[in-house]
Write a structure and sequence with these properties.
Layout (H helix, E strand, L loop, with lengths): L7 E9 L3 H12 L4 E7 L2 E6 L1 E3 L5 E3 L6 E9 L2 E10 L1 H17 L15 E5 L8 E4 L8 E5 L5 E7 L2 E6 L6 E6 L3 E3 L12
Antiparallel strand pairs: 1-7, 2-3, 3-6, 4-5, 6-7, 8-11, 8-14, 9-10, 11-12, 12-13
Helix pairs in contact: 1-2
């Protein structure tokens, strides 16, 4: 029988580029496999608990009082998302939590991941196609709590001015009708991409 160690509590912190919604999406894939289940508690908190257990004869049964728990808290900051992961339980919880931290931190420099650090150079850009129908209301300040401005679509004239962490200051529209605001970097596609990624789009 695999020895999973004594019940313990561990704590990790990391600052990652991925916004909370992507952290939770990754966490669900990494942590939410049986015998654990995953749920989002609120905008900044999620948890995974072991709610089923394997009995003496190999049968799975519901756990009334889960003893193994992983809690994730996300706080937005200027440098990115501060992720705090706390575990209570044996090595099953610890191994899943450390794997999540490894994927989030190493994925920032992996160009093949959707949660990599995205550098948006100054110049023309477009909003991702998923906003074609509803539009993306720009933020008037680089914070999710800020007021929203006009809605931009992939066809809207859009110019990136400067990047601040995961936020990009943009100018939407043209001429006297233009408005400046902020858009999350993962929602933008630059017309010109860094040379290491293959040159010009289009």
């Amino acid at each position: 029988m695999l020895y999973l160690g004594k019940r313990r509590s561990d704590h990790w912190e990391a600052v990652v580029f991925a916004p909370p919604r992507e952290v939770f999406a990754i966490a669900e894939q990494v942590l939410g496999l049986p015998p654990f289940s995953f749920r989002v508690v609120d905008d900044r908190t999620a948890e995974a608990v072991q709610d089923i257990a394997n009995g003496m004869f190999g049968q799975w049964s519901k756990v009334r009082y889960p003893r193994h728990r992983i809690r994730i808290e996300c706080d937005n900051g200027d440098a990115g998302t501060r992720v705090t992961v706390t575990t209570v339980g044996d090595r099953r919880a610890t191994m899943r939590a450390t794997n999540l931290i490894r994927i989030l931190s190493q994925g920032q420099v992996d160009a093949h991941t959707v949660y990599r650090y995205r550098a948006i150079p100054p110049g023309n850009c477009t909003i991702v196609q998923s906003w074609a129908g509803t539009g993306y209301p720009i933020y008037l300040e680089p914070a999710h709590e800020a007021r929203r401005g006009r809605a931009v679509r992939p066809s809207s004239p859009l110019v990136a001015l400067q990047q601040h962490g995961r936020w990009v200051k943009v100018r939407a529209g043209a001429g006297e009708d233009a408005e400046e605001g902020w858009i999350e970097a993962d929602q933008l596609v630059p017309d010109q991409v860094p040379a290491r990624m293959g040159g010009t789009l289009g």
